[in-house]
Amino acid sequence: MSSSLMSQCVHIFLAATFVAMSGVHGGNFYRDFDLTWGDGRAKILNNGQMLTLSLDKVSGSGFQSKNQYLFGKIDMQLKLVPGNSAGTVTAYYLSSQGPTHDEIDFEFLGNLSGDPYILHTNIFTQGKGNREQQFYLWFDPTKDFHTYSILWNPQHIIFSVDGIPIRDFKNLEKYRIPFPKIQPMRLYSSLWDADNWATRGGLVKTDWSKAPFTASYRNFQAQACVLSSGRSRCGSGGNRWFNQQLDVASLKRLRWVQKNYMIYNYCTDVKRFPQGIPTECKHP
Ligand SMILES: *[C@@H]1O[C@H](CO)[C@@H](O)[C@H](O)[C@H]1NC(C)=O
Fold it and tell me: How confident is the model at residue 239, as a pLDDT?
């Protein structure tokens, strides 16, 4: 073996060891995802570095992760449908399967050119959701890629945008609120038409003359515990995310977002819950 080939092998070996140990995983869409629907409307480009979904009058499209995760910190950069995206929804979420499934949702509701997208979030535990919070963003999400992250560990589910936390759902099992910690989840994303509700509650319809609508994805990163032959493997070392919670500075940013950009919070929707707001809302 030539010495340069030898050093290359050592290099590859070290790189592989590092990946296994840290559980960090820089993305390649071919390796990490399956295109699940849309008959060619979902595309992997640039040697696996980029993925696009598109929607036209006939169909939307979607993909899902090959891996199933049981806790993790998942980051993805998205650039949303530009221009007139009214009526379209780009969903990006973790979900398990079955009638008592758990789910952690980001959904981006499109709008007319120049009008703001809504970032819709929800959390299902054991098949029950109804925990919507909605936000405007502090930037135009169609101009550039921005990072949307889900941190899911045994104590918290934290949604972040460009590293700024926007929502923290805590483990409140001590108050008998179920927390997702048993069912592994896959990552899913799809682009579809929801013009019966998405934009201004369904008032603004999809303008099909602007189709196809396209959303783009890049830089998928998962630091996660991955299910393999029925066991969850987190790797050792580098799992700071597993015990992570919001520090003082992050809490301050969370409050800034909630004060200035939150436009709906189920916890304050007293009309919706005449028998009293959900228990978790009493322990923010
Ligand atoms: C769309 O724009 C209108 C007008 O600014 C706004 O009320 C609405 O919240 C925006 N977003 C969606 C998804 O409807």
Answer: 85
The span from the CA of 146 to the CA of 182, in Å, is 30
Q: Is 244 part of a structural domain of the chain?
A: yes
Which ligand 1 atom minimizes the distance to the CA of 86? 13
204 falls within a domain: yes
Distance 69 CA to ligand 1 centre (A): 34
Q: What type of residue sits at position 4?
A: S
Tens of pLDDT, residue by residue over 5-56, are: 444 433 433 333 334 444 455 679 999 999 999 999 999 999 999 999 999 9
181 is a domain residue: yes
Identify the pLDDT of residue 232: 87
Instruction: Please identify, by atom number, the ligand 1 atom nearest to the C-alpha of residue 115.
Output: 2
Is any ligand 1 atom within 6 A of the Cβ of residue 111?
Answer: yes
Contact 72, 149 (CB under 8 A): no
Best substitution site from 134, 200, 207, 261 to test ligand 1's pocket, by max atoms within 8 Å of Cβ? 200
Ligand 1 atom index nearest CA of 110: 13
Query: What span, in angstroms and rounded, lies between the C-alpha atoms of 111 and 210?
Result: 13
Active-site residue numbers? 103, 107
How far, in Å, is the centroid of ligand 1 from the Cα of 104? 23
Q: Give 201's DSSP letter.
A: G
Structural domain boundaries enclosing 212: 26-282
How many domains does the chain divide into? 1
Looking up residue 84, the CATH number of its domain turns out to be: 2.60.120.200
pTM of the model: 0.90
Domain assignment present for 10: no
**Among candidate residues 206, 214, 195, the one with its CA nearest the CA of residue 42:** 214
